Amino acid sequence: MVEDGRRVLSNVVSSQAVLHAVYGGVVPEVAARHHLENICPVIAKAMSDAGMTYPELDAVAVTQGPGLVGALLVGVQVAKGIAFVHGKPLVPVHHIAGHLEAPALARGEDVPCPALALVVSGGHTSLFEMAARGEYRLLGRTRDDAAGEAFDKVAKLLGLGYPGGPVIDRLSEGADDQAHEFTIARIKDGRPDFSFSGVKTAVLYHVRREGIAPVADPAAAPKEIRDLVASFQRAVVTALLRRLEQTARTRRPRSLILTGGVAANRRLRADAARLAEKLGLPLFVPPIALSTDNAAMIGAAGQVAFEQGRRAGWDLDADPHLPLG
Ligand code: KG4
Ligand code: ZN
Q: I need a surface site. Which of 37, 127, 301, 309 has the fewest CB within 10 A?
């Protein structure tokens, strides 16, 4: 629940990570069923945490896409139901617009625009330019895996569990990140795109060549694995920030944004802060609770869309591939 797009009244997150950990990743069918079970209790808690009643709402914002269609459909249908019954406008929101609005929500005011935003999550790795509030332009994106997906796949390979990012982040602390040199493909056609499937495969080949067995307990991972994941993490972070720097030098933004689940990564946060200082730009990174997927960021982006007059009809459909910018 968000007020004026700038104040979080409540933000209830029902994580399915424990469920998906059993399979080493998200199973779409399982995700959709658990959305169905959890969505009404979560909304009831969000309303009571905020101390609000339905008639007091100005509008209902809902993620239209992109994402897993089963999960999106559950959200869209429930949002329609609430808006229909209570006579409220229904505002469709793009998932990434939510990530892009999270920094402004966190600081309670707009970020200086144009802003250059690196959105890094399990499903996306993109560079956006925010020319003004609510005006997003896609500059570049991954051509294969998202950065978070690479973290998750490398973790799975080593028996580190799901989601992989936080474990790799922890295991890398104090490890030798120079132990291996994993190079990340450079896109040479001039577009500020990314590619992470190569580094994942390089780790796979290394693991096979060295005969490294998956660990039974991530907390007891040997030095060999800690150095390996630290080197992998360094390669991913370097590739992300290299692109961010190149693009900042050509686009000359007034601020930088780092957002999405992978923005929780401590190495990425620290190196991005150093880069921002070098470039003389302010860096906005939402706190972790607003960086990883959450409803408050959708409320913030919903406010922007609401003010721009965006409304959905009762035929609103989920769009798993909804484009932005
Ligand atoms: O934004 P998000 O919560 O969901 C998607 O929209 O995908 O991002 C989830 C992703 C997962 O791939 C997870 O491994 C990654 O964010 N992640 C991290 C860290 N915490 C979460 N990656 C690296 N380091 C972390 N500390
Ligand atoms: Zn996300």
A: 309
The answer, yes or no, to whether any atom of ligand 1 lies below 6 A from the CB of 166, is: yes
Cα separation, 174 vs 171, whole angstroms:
8
Q: Distance, CA 233 to ligand 2 centroid (Å)?
A: 20
List, for residues 97-129, the tens digit of each pLDDT value.
999 999 999 999 899 999 999 999 999 999 999
Q: Mutation test of ligand 1: which of 157, 292, 324 has the most ligand atoms closer than 8 Å to its C-beta?
A: 292
Q: What DSSP line would sit under 16-62, residue for residue?
A: -HHHHHTTTS--HHHHHHHHHHHHHHHHHHHHHHHT--GGG-S-EEE
**Does the global pTM surpass 0.85?**
yes
Burial of 39 from C-beta contacts in 10 A (0-12 / 13-18 / 19+): middle
Q: With a 6 A CB cut-off, is 145 part of the ligand 1 pocket?
A: no
Residue nearest to atom 14 of ligand 1 (CA): 165
Nearest CA to ligand 1 atom 18: 165
Contact 230, 181 (CB under 8 A): no
C-alpha–C-alpha distance, residues 3 and 148, integer Å: 30
